[in-house]
Specification:
The complex is a heterodimer. Chain A is α+β, with helices and mostly antiparallel strands. Helix content of chain A is 40%, strand content 13%. In chain A, helix 3 packs across helix 6. The longest helix of chain A has 16 residues, at 146-161. Chain B is of the alpha+beta class. Helix content of chain B is 26%, strand content 23%. In chain B, the strands form eight sheets. Chain B has a seven-stranded mixed beta sheet with strand order 12-13-10-20-17-18-19. In chain B, helix 1 runs parallel beside helix 3 (129-151). The two termini of chain B are 40 Å apart. Classes of the chains: A alpha+beta, B alpha+beta. Chains A and B meet through helix 2, helix 3, helix 4, helix 5 and helix 6 of A and helix 5, helix 6 and helix 16 of B.
Chain lengths: 162, 726
Amino acid sequence: MLRAATQTEARMITLTVNGREHRLDVEPEMPLLWVLRDEIGLTGTKFGCGIAQCGACAVHVNGAATRACSVPVGSIDGAAVLTIEGLSAESNHPVQVAWIAEDVPQCGYCQSGQIMAAVAFLKATPNPSDADIDAGLSNICRCGTYPRLRAAVHRAAALMRT
Amino acid sequence: MNAMVPGRRQFLLATLSAAGGLAVGVGFAPDAAALPTNTEIWDTPPPAGAHEVTAWVVIEPDESVLIRVAKQEMGQGILTALPMLVAEELGCDWTKVRAEYASAHRNLVEKNVYGRMGTGGSRSVRENYRLLQQAGASARERLVAAAAARWGVAPAACSVRDGRITHPPSGRTLGFGAVAADAARITLTAEPAIRPPEQFRLAGTPQPRLDTPVKVNGSARFGIDTRLPGMLYAAVAACPVFGGTLVSADDKAIAGRRGIKAVVRLKDAVVVVADNFWRAKQALADLPVTWDEGAAADTDSAQFRAAYRAALDGPAANALTRGNAAAALAGAPKTVEALYEVPYLAHATMEPLNCTAHVQPGRVDVWLGTQFPEKALEAAAEVAGVAPGNVYVHNCYLGGGFGRRAVNDELRQAVAVSKAVGAPVKLIWTREEDIRHDRYRPQAAIRFRAGLGADGMPVAWQARTAVGSIRRSLGWDPVTNGVESSAVEGLANTPYAFPNATVDCILKNTHVPVMFWRSVGSSQNAFAVESFIDELAAAAGVDPLTMRRRLLAGKSDFLHVLDVLEENSGWGRPLPAGWGRGIAIHQSFDTIVGEVVEASVSSRGEVRVHRVVAAVDCGHVVNPATVERQIESAVIYGLTAALSGEITIAKGRVEQGNFDTYEMVRMADAPRIETHLALSGGGKWGGIGEPGTPPIAPALANAIFDATGTRVRSLPLKHARLVGRA
């Protein structure tokens, strides 16, 4: 028993998600997306494609925007992960405030990923031009909210400067 | 717009300054408690102390008003627009309105108390505004009658505003909550009259969506987010060739793998059930499966294309005859002929299809996003073998619909699997499964022959389409007369004044299932018609907008749309070198939309869409903010299809599988879109979810012709050989 416990202990993967530590007994190849959704129960991060094409699963890993469907959890043992649920307690991160003001979402399914991508983008590009937005934000939205997303990114940038 | 935002969102107040820069004031932190939107949008038991005035309206103890919505939210904004129509008459405080779905189970048990719940055809507002206004007016009159009875005054002496009933002569007032219980017991002798649109107070004003707050923090529950105690996860693979069946699956190959609970065999699919979706998906990929692919395994898109072209020369059913087109064509000084072709298209909703089912003895619960909850209920009952009255559909926010969620393929699988394993099961289609097992927008070939008179105007118009029948594909209807309305929409009901015209229809299906795809038949027919009108204008040497204006003479609503379009697009003004401008106008779902596209083609043939100006006549508007966003959405949805959308078949199966091969318009490709209302009002109520899609492909193709002189007659545009003049 002691031996088995030690083996389990040895293959445990540790993640700090939204400030809370999780010790996870999962295969190291399991993508972060499914660890978040099925093991930890945080369903705000969405499955869209599974091949890092659409960005619906965007989260931050150690502060960097990351498409969680294509990151084996074993490759980020010990990392700090931020998901949409941890972005703010009351939906008052400037990017969320801007999203509400522009009434961006339609079906809403891609928006967790859009917001997490935009938060990371604005950290690196606090005063973006339209060309910067074109180059820096590539998540897919099938409802075509791109004009509102663009406006909301500009608005969030303005909010974050004040 | 922001001046009209209700108090609940005062913290957001922001305005565009006159110079166009952002002036943002963030005065208050948002109060989460003041954002009443449900994360779980299906019907839930009302809180203690709440009183149901009617099946549509519940007054809660804190005076919030719960309005039930019998249509399904897939992004089109009905969860806000429909309650606005109820609140218009109810006289409640709009900032205290909460919305949730009406129950499909209750609709079954209470004999259609909510009417038709199925959502599609851009129908939700135009076919329900009277019903919803009546629901609001009826609840208001009951509340007033209850207050009047308590005061011993005449109901007519009372007035209603912001959720309070007042008796002005005595100054007495009561909140809705104080009389809701009494109101529920009142029977009205006659239903009150409803307001005509000219008297609307709330409807017609731009309102923020009620579901935005839960869609910016990850809390909105989509079907795929369902979690139940003891729930298992399922990954599914259907036979890669449509119509094929499962022969065998060798579970020994995955036996003993971590978390794997079962392999379930369906007639045409195999399912792996596990304690985590990824484990199920990985095991399914490694599961040796033998299929009987059936007769269609030798088919491909080249065969289909040849077959649709050939069908145009075969027998056809007539959908429109006006005058004598053959004679007029024979006598015309100039004739023009062209063939247009479009491919199959997948819906590719952002949320892949999924359903969670819990089959228990005598009861079935399902959680999913469906456009037709009543059909979901029937399908679950059928598969589980229980009475429909024992099925509960917990409809969620839909992660996109566009027609795909009108039938419930994923639900049938999930119910069968839950029944087989005796546990709640969440079954999820991978993106590849979703793209390869869609029911597609039909492939089509459309041919025109037209004769131009001496004045350059068409004297003869012959249109002929060869296209898959949706109703036959769904098994709904054999369409014995050979004309399907969706196959000829935009053709047979042409608004153009052709003195002599025929429209013929050839319904021809392959083994590829076809279904409703945002704007249905108009998605291909508008491309063909509006491109060919442009060809006629070019052949006649007439400006394309002028040609349309002449053909629409006397139709004031169409002409108004063209006027608004001309004025706001800068039609005729010079463009940079290498750019072109194109126009299209199309009526679908009782709404006319005209669009002007400005696009450029580089010397290497790269197409870039810069600007789209849209003019819309949907008669009346409930939420102008929604109308604007639906036009943007429909334009971008149609643009994706026009630029790169195609589903092709090889060896009987779909070649595309994910967003790397079924490409999408992204931020960098999205044009500036300007929407202008050109409302005709009166008795007209048009839809808004779909009508923005049909004009975009032809307007773009016409802009490309303007820019390059090359006519694009086959979609998607990515295959066109274009050389820009810049």
